[in-house]
């Protein structure tokens, strides 16, 4: 790189290092837009940060110390649910930025385009949820949140195939499985606006998982190994949780994940 042309790597890094939630969401959408409009050079001068910047609130707790979320439709329970969903989307912004910035040079322009598109979607999801929380008299940061999500990313920072295997193909795919039941519960509670937000998110997440599965397949081809075997070995090495039914098979299939792939590593229903 010569001259002062801004690079996509530097823009991604700056968004990762933005702590304020609204500012990070805006920065993510701006990087995606600038990249799409050809305003950023395909260059990655600096390393991505070990950890992205986070705001002072929410307080981050290990999953075991998270207060239990009450069941039912109490106002407090509803706020806790949306706060937890908002946190997932907030961390998802950083996950998408990090994969694009860390592995973009190796994986190419199409990969950067796909995952910056994901980052912009996650920023939009976060914004919708934060607005919904505010309509309920709360906001993102009002409650503690769990700190487990970034760990999967950190553990796979040296291998793009491992990152794709765990983040889009396990964690985001898990979102496809659990969202329909949440959506039904939200709708049954009379929160139609919330239900529409979740429908929107579910549609977008199918695409995110599909990007993950597609780029994972290219990694496997490049390494001349069977994609299913590579996925299973990376998941067993890098993912400590269980792959558990019930699965949303139709959404998974739409995302390019076949039952042959995850059916074999799945624990029997009710186990774990
Ligand atoms: Fe999302
Ligand atoms: Fe996503």
Automatic annotation (TrEMBL):
Signal peptide: none annotated. Residues 49-72 are annotated as: Disordered. It holds the Pfam family DUF455. Residues 54-65 have a biased composition (Pro residues). This is Ferritin-like domain-containing protein. The lineage of its organism: Bacteria, Pseudomonadati, Pseudomonadota, Alphaproteobacteria, Sphingomonadales.
